[in-house]
C-alpha cells in the first residue's frame, strides 16, 4: 500500500478544487495532493453537452493566476456586445494547462486522476485507483472537500421517472449524434440546460413549433448585460447597486426578485408566471425572446412516467407520439446544499462564499486559508452563501454574501487581493472610477448598505412562514 505525506488533500479537481489550489499555491508554501475520480481536471465540463458554454464571461472564470480566453468583446452571434464565454473544450484544455504547466512547475502539487476518495480511518485518508484497485493512504494536515457543490449533469445523473423501452430519451449530449430528423423534440426540465438546448436547436434552424417544452417550474435568471466585467464593469456595479437597494426594501424573496426585474437585472421566461426557482444562472434578453417563441409549453408538474403514447406528470397527462425525441434536462446543475461552515479543524468544505461565481469563492477560501490561522476568524471572513434553489431563501443568501464582502474588505491584505483577483467581476471598478455607472453605483451602495443589512437580518431571523412555503414546490434536485 502506497503512503503519501502532504499538507493538503484536495478531493475534486473541478473549478472549485483548481481555483482553491491555485490560490493556496500562490500565497503559501504548502504541498498539495489533488485527487479526482475523473482522468483529468475540469470536473463536470469533461462530460458537458457539446454546445454548452460558460454562462458568465471567461474573464472571471478558472483560476486566479491564468487568464481564460482573450478578454474579447464578441462582435456577432448570440453573445454580441458581451465578453466572450468559453466552450467546454476550451475550459477543459485550460484546466489541463493549469495542472500540467503552473501546478507542475511549482513542484508542490501531485495529481492522482482516476482515483476515488473512500474516506478516512485511523490509518489516514484512503484513495483507490479505479484502474488498478490499488489503495493509497494519504496523511494530510488538512482535508479539503471540493465535491460539496459538485454539479449534477444530464449525462451522469439518475432519472427520477420511469421510461417505456421504446421511448427515445437522450441527454442533450446525444443531440449531435442524431442520424435522422425526429418527429419533434420534447425538452424536459425548466432550468438553464433546457434553455441552452432550445437555444441551440434554434441556431440549427429547428422551427419552434417542433419543440414541446415540459417545464415543471420557472426560474429567475440574471440578465447577462448586467454581469459584464472589465471595460463594461459599470454594468456589474449597477447590478450590485440594484441588488442592495432591493435588499434594503424588499418584503420577501418574491418581492426582492420583482424589484430586480423592474430594473431588467432579473429575467424570466414567461411574463405571466412567477418563478420560484433561483440558482443564479445567467441569460440574455435575446435568448429569452427566442425561448418565448415556443408555444407548446406543458405545465403539469414533474414527469413521473414517459410512455410512447402518454406522458404522465404530477398534475396530469398529455398524449404523445412514438417518433418524438425526448431530451432529459432534469439534472439539477448547481445542487442544493445545506448551510455548514467552510472551515473546521483539519477540514475545509469548499462552497459559495460570494453570490454566484464558484471559482472566485474557492480562490477566496484559498487566500483566507493561506493567510489566517484561527478557524473562527476564517469562518468570520467566509460566511457560506447557500443556494437552496428557492427564491424565498434569497435574503439568507444575500446576507451571507454581503457579510463576507464587508468582513474581507475591512482587512487590508484581503481587500488588496480581492481588488486584483481576475475572478472578481468587480475588480475593474477601481480603474473605472470615472465611469458614470460606477459613480452612481457607489453612491447608491453608500446610501442603502446599512438599511439593506438591517432588512436582511430582520428577514433571516424571521423566515418565510411554513404555510407560505407550502404553496411552493419545495426545491429538489430533479427540477432543473
Ligand atoms: C452547464 C453548466 C454551466 C455552468 N456555468 C457556470 C458559469 O458560467 N459560472 C459559474 O460560476 N458557475 C457555472 N456553473 C456552476 C458550476 O457548478 C461551476 O462552474 C463549477 O464548474 C463547479 O465546479 P466544482 O468543482 O464545484 O464541481 P465539478 O465540476 O462537478 O467537480 C467536482 C469533481 O469532484 C470529483 N469527485 C466527486 N466525488 C469524488 C470522489 N469521491 N473521489 C474523487 N473525486 C470525486 C468529480 O469527479 C468532479 O471532477 C455551471 C454549471 C453547469 C452544470
C-alpha-based Rg, rounded: 23 Å
Unreliably modeled segments: 464-480
Instruction: Count helical runs.
Output: 12
| Helical residue percent band | 25-40%
Ligand species: flavin-adenine dinucleotide
What is the beta-strand fraction? 15-25%
Global outline:
globular
Query: Whole-Å distance between the termini?
Result: 42 Å
Q: How many individual β-strands?
A: 21
Structural class: alpha/beta
Taking the sheet with the most strands, its summary is: 8 strands, mixed
Average pLDDT, to the nearest integer? Answer: 93
Description:
The structure is a single chain. This protein is 32% helix and 20% strand. 45% of the residues are buried. With 480 residues, the chain is an alpha/beta fold. The longest helix has 26 residues, at 436-461. It is globular and about 60 Å long. The strands form four sheets. Strands 1, 2, 3, 4, 5, 6, 19 and 20 form an eight-stranded mixed β-sheet that branches. The two termini are 42 Å apart. The structure holds flavin-adenine dinucleotide (FAD). Flavin-adenine dinucleotide is lined by residues 11-17, 35-38, 43-44, 48, 52, 54-56, 61, 116-117, 146-147, 149-151, 153, 333-334, 356-358.
Amino acid at each position: 500500500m502506497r503512503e503519501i505525506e502532504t499538507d493538503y488533500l484536495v478531493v475534486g479537481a473541478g473549478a472549485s478544487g483548481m481555483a482553491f489550489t491555485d490560490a493556496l499555491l500562490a500565497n503559501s508554501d504548502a504541498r498539495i495532493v489533488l485527487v479526482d475520480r475523473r482522468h483529468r481536471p475540469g470536473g463536470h465540463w469533461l462530460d458537458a453537452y457539446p454546445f454548452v458554454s460558460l454562462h458568465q464571461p471567461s474573464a472571471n472564470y478558472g483560476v486566479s493566476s491564468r487568464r481564460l480566453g482573450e478578454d474579447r468583446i464578441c462582435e456577432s452571434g448570440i453573445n454580441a456586445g458581451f465578453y466572450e464565454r468559453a466552450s467546454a473544450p476550451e475550459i477543459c484544455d485550460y484546466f489541463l494547462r493549469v495542472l500540467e504547466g503552473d501546478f507542475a512547475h511549482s513542484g508542490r502539487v501531485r495529481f492522482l486522476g482516476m482515483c476515488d476518495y473512500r474516506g478516512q480511518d485511523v490509518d489516514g485518508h484512503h484513495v483507490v485507483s479505479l484502474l488498478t484497485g490499488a489503495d493509497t493512504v494519504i496523511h494530510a494536515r488538512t482535508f479539503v472537500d471540493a465535491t460539496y457543490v459538485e454539479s449534477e449533469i444530464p449525462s451522469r445523473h439518475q432519472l427520477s421517472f420511469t421510461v417505456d423501452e421504446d421511448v427515445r430519451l437522450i441527454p442533450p449530449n446525444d443531440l449531435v449524434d442524431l442520424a435522422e430528423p425526429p418527429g419533434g423534440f420534447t425538452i424536459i426540465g425548466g432550468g438553464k440546460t433546457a434553455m441552452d438546448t432550445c437555444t441551440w436547436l434554434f441556431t440549427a434552424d429547428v422551427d419552434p413549433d417542433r419543440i414541446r417544452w415540459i417545464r415543471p417550474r420557472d426560474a429567475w435568471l440574471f440578465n447577462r448585460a448586467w454581469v459584464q466585467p472589465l471595460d463594461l464593469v459599470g454594468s456589474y456595479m449597477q447590478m450590485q447597486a440594484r441588488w442592495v437597494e432591493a435588499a434594503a426594501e424588499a418584503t420577501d424573496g418574491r418581492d426582492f426578485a420583482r424589484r430586480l426585474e423592474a430594473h431588467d437585472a432579473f429575467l424570466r421566461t414567461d411574463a405571466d408566471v412567477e418563478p420560484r426557482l433561483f440558482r443564479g444562472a445567467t441569460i440574455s434578453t435575446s435568448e429569452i425572446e427566442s425561448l418565448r417563441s415556443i408555444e407548446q409549453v406543458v405545465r403539469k408538474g414533474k414527469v413521473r412516467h414517459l410512455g410512447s403514447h402518454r406522458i404522465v406528470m404530477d398534475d396530469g397527462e398529455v398524449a404523445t407520439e412514438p417518433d418524438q425525441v425526448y431530451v432529459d434536462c432534469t439534472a439539477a446543475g448547481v445542487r442544493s446544499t445545506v448551510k455548514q461552515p467552510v472551515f473546521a479543524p483539519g477540514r475545509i468544505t469548499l462552497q459559495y462564499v460570494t453570490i454566484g461565481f464558484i471559482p472566485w469563492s474557492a480562490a477566496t477560501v484559498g487566500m483566507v486559508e493561506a493567510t489566517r490561522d484561527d478557524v473562527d476568524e476564517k469562518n468570520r471572513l467566509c460566511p457560506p452563501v447557500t443556494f437552496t434553489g428557492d427564491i424565498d431563501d434569497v435574503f439568507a443568501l444575500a446576507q451571507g454574501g454581503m457579510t463576507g464582502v464587508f468582513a474581507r474588505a475591512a482587512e487590508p491584505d484581503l481587500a488588496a487581493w480581492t481588488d486584483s483577483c481576475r475572478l472578481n467581476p468587480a475588480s475593474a471598478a477601481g480603474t473605472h472610477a470615472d465611469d458614470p455607472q460606477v459613480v452612481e453605483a457607489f453612491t447608491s451602495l453608500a446610501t442603502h448598505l446599512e438599511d439593506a443589512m438591517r432588512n436582511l437580518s430582520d428577514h433571516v431571523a424571521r423566515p418565510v412562514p411554513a404555510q407560505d412555503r407550502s404553496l411552493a414546490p419545495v426545491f429538489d434536485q430533479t427540477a432543473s
